[in-house]
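Forum: Protein Structure Q&A
Topic: Joint prediction for protein chains with partners

I've read a bunch of threads here and the consensus seems to be that you should model interacting components together rather than docking separate models afterwards. I'd like to see that in practice. Below is the full input, 995 residues plus whatever partners are listed. Could one of the regulars post the assembled result?
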Amino acid sequence: MSLATHRTPHFDWIVLTFRFLMAIGLLLGCTREMPELPVNGAASPTGRGQTVHIQADQTAMQSPFHFDSVASRWFADGIPSYRNGEGAGHRAILESLGGGVGLLDFDRDGWLDAVFPGGGEISAELVLLPVPTRILRGGTDWTAKDVTAPAGLVCTTTYTHGVAIADIDDDGFPDLVITGYHGLQCWKNQGDGTWQDAVSATGLKADTLWSSSAAWGDLNHDGVLDLYVAHYVDWSSTNHPFCPNVKGERDVCPPRQFSPLPDEVFLGNGDGTFRTGRKELGLRDDGKGLGVLIADLDGNDRLDAYVANDTVPNFFYRAQPGGTLIEAGMFSGTALSDVGTPDGSMGVSLGDFDLDGRPDLWVANYERELFALYRNLGEGLFQHVSQATGIGALGANYVGFGTVFGDWDLDGDEDLAVSNGHVHMVPANAPVRQRPLLLANQAGRRLVNATAGTGAYFDEGHIGRGLASGDLDRDGDLDLISTPTNESAAVLENVSPRQGRWLQLALVARQSPRDAIGAQATLKTSIGVRVRQVTSGGSYLSQSTRTLHWGLPTGATADWLVVHWPSGAEQRFAVPSLEVEWLAIEGRSELLAVRP
Amino acid sequence: MKHAKWRFPDVSVYCGICLWLLCGCTARPELNALVEQGWTAYQAHDIETLQAVMTTAFKRDKRAVEARFLRGLFLIRSGSPEAALVPLRDAARAVALRPRAVIAAAQAYYDLGQFHAVEQVLNDVLQQQPENIDAHRLLAALNYDLGINPRAIHHMETVARLDLDDPRPHRLIGLMRKDFQDYPAAVEAYRAALARKPQPGLAAEIRLELAQSLVEQREYAPALTALTADDQSPEALAVRMQCLDSLDRRAEAAPIVSAARALTAPPAVLCLALGDFYESGGEQSEAIAAYEQAAQVDPLDFIPRYKLSSAYARTGRDVDARRELETMQANRARYDRLHELQNKAMQHPEDADLRYRIGEAAAALGRTELAHAWYRAALGLDPTHAAAQAGLSQPENVQ
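Posted by a regular:
Agreed with the consensus. Here's the joint model:
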């Protein structure tokens, strides 16, 4: 979320050019080269205060995607809307973060449910007034029921942002952590539709800093889930400087105005409690974390953590054999932009863009920065390939947040969705409300803007933040939920013309925490291998479904599934048929059909 | 520093009138014409014409205030601004010559690096003539030199408003905006400059700068069309290569790549563009060679180092990669310091030492000419700044 004016330029040497010109007196009254030509009223520059629209993408294409907005159907009990409290006019940086969404099947009925942190309001005296988190139970035919009250999921102490989901007590029911200002919330799923406040019992109450995204995973490889919590900056009601916008009015301060807050890792003790472990694992303390992804990024059977930091280098914590982490962002090529400058990074996603069997990293960044596609070269090395893959053609005005990979049209490669929206009330150059993006993967070679004409939600600007994907209607394709700020959440049914068939796979680990975070499944098909990985966190403040999803173009066949479990074990399964959600349980030799 | 004062008591007007009477009314129309010719030549930096006009004026009436005025102008343009101040002071006593004499004197003070005096004189001018275009031009230059870009842009915008034919104010605003990465505003300014129909040479320069700004805005197709077709400068080749690559039109870039490779001493920016082009095409060894050349041309820039580090790491040259990464970080730190200080300068218009430190930061990056510009700015605010004086004594080494 860096302010452009606070960004470091790529080429400063042009300053010299201008000084040359000054020195030779161009400015000081040389003869005009072309005084004889009349002006005829031409060329008064347009005012900077005018709305600048995001320029048309030079390589935009006819979209293969279409998404219908079905929120009013899904949210029969009222559509959740994340509140940031901007009405009080404080323009606090707190207001700029927004909220996410978590998709989970908390009641194990097969239908995805959703958790929406509510955010908060802010009083005139800069007191934070929490807005409750809501939880909705998904059902058939695009119906969902608000079960917040019976669930008992009520907390009145934190201004909330994000969701992290995992089965932390291995009881088969997913549990929740909610991030925000003034600390974490932890809710244990009782399995009967109710939730128990477990923030004290688990020890997560020790985290009191301003947290943004969080993600679960066994980072020290001891067989117990750990929690990575990204912390942002040291803003407070007493550290709330005046930062003027282009009109000279108070606006949201850039993150450079504040000091970073150190991220934290809560290491699982194996008894349902956690201890702080940032020193034990060797975390840095100079990040301004907004997005977190936990996955095995270097293929060594250990979970790594990638942190999207705002205006400072991103972190890539590579797991080491001794259960520690080494921050290897710089050397790996994932810390910076293509020219060696830190980006204002917010959202992150993992997908095998180039179909080479290795998961690539995708990072949504601030305006004027390229969204970063880091191609995975193996051995912990990545190559910034945004320019080569056409990302530059998106233009320079998007401020990207939530982002997810997904094969929206079932053509066999993973496409992308991105939520965008500015952080300032009066940005200098880009619009406040920005259109989301759908990027079509062209056979692993280029990403092309395929947003136009994909549905009403994509035709309008939003202050986009959270984004998650999952098959909400169980029809085999991936739908989306988006949570813009101060606007109703959007539920987007994927109705894209299908280019093929689908396959879904849920994984249950037995030799490692049951969420199987880091498990990699390779689908061997007639058109090559297609790899998916179970990840935690990702996007921005959100959690997508952990059920893996493949599209296969018409005519292609799938023969085998090879699952590489976090324990290191590998299993090969025959694929009995497509268009089925399968369940693989570590150690069981056959896939189980969850639903046809 | 003591500020120069330009006060014109009534007695000076009286003296001017007497002088005018003494010089004889008959010579006046011719001298007035010479003043006009001389002023035009002065503004055009046409020193030969200026000298001829001055000589004619002295032949006509060696005691004429007009001749002394022209002598002042000539001395400025021939690099003797201090000597120019005496005849210009005399000329300023003549009511008709006073505005121009004061402006020229301000120029002399500017050339002498006496920035406070320039500001004082020009502010006096603007109090009486708020729309004096020459005063605004000079104040724009002064504020730019002091690193106070918003003020410089303000004065340049006034110049652009007052002279509707001149494309240069918008071009210079564009450059300032571009320098500070305000690319949308830079694009706007360049387009405004082009709308004023500059001569072909200047137009090509503006088009290149516009194209570079559009590339920064990731508007590749407009950037390509912005370039003048016959602009084959290395910078234009770099822009074309980047645009065609980004637009997935690599095949069209083949002749551009050939032209770039044929250059014997390509600038770093072209080497970088070549490296990026090769890298995007998967030609790793060619990319490395181009990045190495960029690093050689501009060893203190951080971008080639970062590109090299990444490319070495990808090809298994870990030791080289780590070395380049370290160099990159060191260069980057120097760069960040320069940038931070430059930003600070805008908030501290009177801080001579800050400007000296910016000079030091620029010198640490090998930008000695830029460093000298900042040392001069420091001395302009504080002529006694010994460290800035010492800095200026170091030879310039243009990168």
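The first helix of chain A runs from residue 14 to 23.
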